[in-house]
Amino acid sequence: MRDGIGCSTPAVNLLTRNGGTFLNYVQRVSGCEIIIPPVTYRGEDPREIGFIGTKESIAVAKEMVFGQAGHF
Q: Residues with Cβ < 8 Å from 4, sequence gap 6 or more?
């Protein structure tokens, strides 16, 4: 299954800091692959974050991501 969410650029930067350590952790715990396109376009905000996995693994990954970046 595939899903995606829009996320502000500052939130994406927060999620990908330290070489993406947090995203790697989320992927290990949830079993869901998370994709953030490396290319950004001027004025592109929000950016899209993609999720690939089972319905359950996507739900777990989204909850973890929103917990980390939800205040943006």
A: 48, 49, 50, 51
Would you call 58 helix, strand, or coil by DSSP? helix
Domain with residue 63: its CATH number is: 3.30.1370.10
Asked if 52 and 2 touch (Cβ cutoff 8 Å), the reply is yes
- Rounded CA-CA distance 52/67 in Å is 19
Residue 25 CA to residue 46 CA, distance in Å, equals 23
Range of the domain at 50: 2-69
Residue with tokens 């996507």: 58
**pLDDT tens, residue by residue, 4-52:** 998 888 888 888 889 889 999 999 999 999 999 877 767 667 788 999 9
Pairing of strands 2-7, 33-35: unpaired
